[in-house]
Amino acid sequence: MPREIERKFLVADAGWRQAVSTSLRLRDGLLASVDGRKVRVRCLEDRAFLTVKGPREGISRDEFEYEIPLADGLAMLDHCQGATLEKTRHLVPFAGFEWSVDEYAPPLDGVILAEIELPAEDAVFARPPWLGREVTGRDEYRKITMLRARLARA
Amino acid sequence: MPREIERKFLVADAGWRQAVSTSLRLRDGLLASVDGRKVRVRCLEDRAFLTVKGPREGISRDEFEYEIPLADGLAMLDHCQGATLEKTRHLVPFAGFEWSVDEYAPPLDGVILAEIELPAEDAVFARPPWLGREVTGRDEYRKITMLRARLARA
Q1: Do A75 and B62 touch (CB under 8 A)?
Q2: Inter-chain CB pairs, A–B, below 8 Å
Q3: What is the ipTM of this complex?
Q4: Where does the record place the CYTH domain (chains A, B) (predicted)?
């Protein structure tokens, strides 16, 4: 069964910007969720993906991802009004791993999170100098929590 | 955008059994739902499908369906404990349309519903003699409602 093993961090400074290899614009929509399972549609440049994630267990969760026609993905995003997020994903290679530094668009402008996908829960990786505090599994850095907080302040 | 246009009926008697062309065993799991959208995984004999349905609008709703590897489908069903349903789907041709007569397994044993998918909302179709009362859109015949009622009685 495919597993997603991911750790999430704040960034300490903007040093990552000098090391970006690629930047992708993407738009995510939360189609539905229940009991920690969630189904997301993602449109990324001219491709679209449907992703089913199981409940989080520590830093891991089951994840199934399928590419779907872009037209389907865009139509599904239309269904998710109020539960979509746009961000630019910057890919930043460091010491044999590829970091994703996600820079969110409004309403989450100003939010920047760095993620690394690991091949195993105990995989060893080097921390780049720009990396900040780890926030893996922290509720206040879940996208839905950040979105609700931001909208409540608006 | 793909649309599902479907009407659902009770059966008046067992006359449909003589006209069955094929019977398929299938197992459905509700992965997640919100605001009338829902995402379902279906394992049908040796195939599996992931289906995203938009909110119901009269007798229509958006529907996106993708075939996925059977192993993925079975793993997802395992995630849906308590929200899975098994049924035998009998295909019954009548007057140019193919009816699906769904005979549910426990805990919904005894429930039999006939469905027809239409090419347009105003499509004309002939009613087979065994067809009972229409229940399209009736909340008490939604699977989740029937399941809750049955479990409450158990």
Answers
A1: yes
A2: 65
A3: 0.78
A4: 2-150
The proportion of chain B whose per-residue pLDDT surpasses 70, expressed as a percent, equals 98
With beta carbons under 8 A apart, name residues in chain B contacting A84: none
pLDDT tens digits, A50-70: 999 988 888 888 899 999 999
Cα torsion through A127, A130, A136, A141, rounded to 10: 180
- The rounded distance, in Å, linking the Cα atoms of A6 and B26 is 34
What average pLDDT does chain A have?
91
pLDDT, tens digit, 9 for 90 and up, residues B129-154? 999 999 998 888 888 788 888 878 77
In angstroms, the CA B76 to CA B111 distance is 25
- The reply to whether residue B64 touches residue A75, judged by beta carbons under 8 angstroms, is yes
Candidate from A34, A55, A66 with C-beta closest to B50: A66
B54 interfaces chain A, CB cutoff of 8 Å: yes
Q: Which secondary-structure segment (H or E) carries A79?
A: helix A70-79
Interface residue B81 vs chain A (CB under 8 A) = no
Task: For chain A, list the domains and their CATH numbers.
Answer: 3-153 (2.40.320.10)
Q: A115 has which bridge partners?
A: A8, A100
Q: Is the Cβ pair A37, B52 closer than 8 Å?
A: no
- pLDDT of B82-103, one tens digit each? 678 999 999 999 999 999 999 9
Verify cis geometry, omega within 30 degrees of 0, for the bond prior to B2. Answer: no
Instruction: Look up residue A57 and give its DSSP letter.
Output: B
Cα separation, B132 vs B146, in Å, equals: 18
Q: Closest residue of A to B49, CA-based?
A: A66
